[in-house]
Amino acid sequence: MNPPSLSVVIPAYNEEEIIGECLTRLAEQREHIAEVLVVDNNSTDRTTEIVAEQAARWPAIRLIGEAEQGLVHARNRGLDSAVGDLIARIDADTLVPPDWARQIVDFFAADTSGHWAAACGRGQAYDLPYGDTVGTLRQRWRERKAHRVKQVPVLYGSNMILRQHTWALIRDRVAMRRDVFEDVDTGLCVTEVGGRNAFLPTITVGVAPRRMATGMVSFTRYMSCLPRTLLLHKRYGLALGAATVYLPPIIVLHAARLVLLRTYDTRTGRFAPTELFRKTPERVAP
């Protein structure tokens, strides 16, 4: 049997700083990728120009547009347009490792019974001024247990894969709201139609730490999407646990992390307390 074909969907909104590197890394794995669909969601910078330049070197890259503003609209446009047996959805700031596509194709090719409907890996932030020692140690531990694929209830939006027929099953179930976590919602929709989500410990991707640099109010508002998403799916116990047990320590951790990030002077490569008061652009949700 031929291995399943893989499409990669990338919603993009003003991503000129990183979209080129994202596509370059995918192009290096063209042997295992049938197409890359970049869905421009009304970018006002050079995003579309950079994508066009990359497409001139690798025609498998296609630029399509979605006029309705919002990640869920761009995501749906891309997933609906994909022709692969498998559809990976990553972010424009996702930097995939060298064997990412091969491992995805091999995993689903080996799943001849169709046991897994979808899969995801984790994301590890890059370009952190203080490094990511914890994330690196966690990744090494996972690599030692690489054979231990486990079932998870949700998916991770920067690094997720759906079978084509799985997307067809949940297409009319996914929420089109912008105040919920669309990846958590997608994963829960998969389980609600009887599918299983696999967590693959060996396909960790790099993700930009932009969300980590957002202010406390913005971050708290963002994280409140988690219990709201769980409530949407009537997971009342999980929603209560998320709101009362999970979110408070995460918000405290973010406050400490924010001090480190904002006191780091990118120009000198040193920490400077005065940098804490400089204005930092917030992560804009598309």
TrEMBL record:
It comes from the Bacteria. This is 4,4'-diaponeurosporenoate glycosyltransferase. The lineage of its organism: Bacteria, Bacillati, Actinomycetota, Actinomycetes, Mycobacteriales. Residues 7-163 form the Glycosyltransferase 2-like domain. Belongs to the glycosyltransferase 2 family. CrtQ subfamily. GO terms for molecular function: glycosyltransferase activity. It is found in: Cell membrane. Gene3D superfamilies: Spore Coat Polysaccharide Biosynthesis Protein SpsA, Chain A (3.90.550.10). The chain crosses the membrane at residues 236-260. Pathway: Carotenoid biosynthesis; staphyloxanthin biosynthesis; staphyloxanthin from farnesyl diphosphate: step 4/5. SUPFAM superfamilies: Nucleotide-diphospho-sugar transferases (SSF53448). GO terms for cellular component: plasma membrane. The keyword Transferase applies. Catalyzes the glycosylation of 4,4'-diaponeurosporenoate, i.e. the esterification of glucose at the C1'' position with the carboxyl group of 4,4'-diaponeurosporenic acid, to form glycosyl-4,4'-diaponeurosporenoate. This is a step in the biosynthesis of staphyloxanthin, an orange pigment present in most staphylococci strains. Keywords: Cell membrane, Glycosyltransferase, Membrane, Transferase, Transmembrane, Transmembrane helix. Pfam families: Glycos_transf_2 (PF00535). The keyword Transmembrane applies. Its main location: membrane.
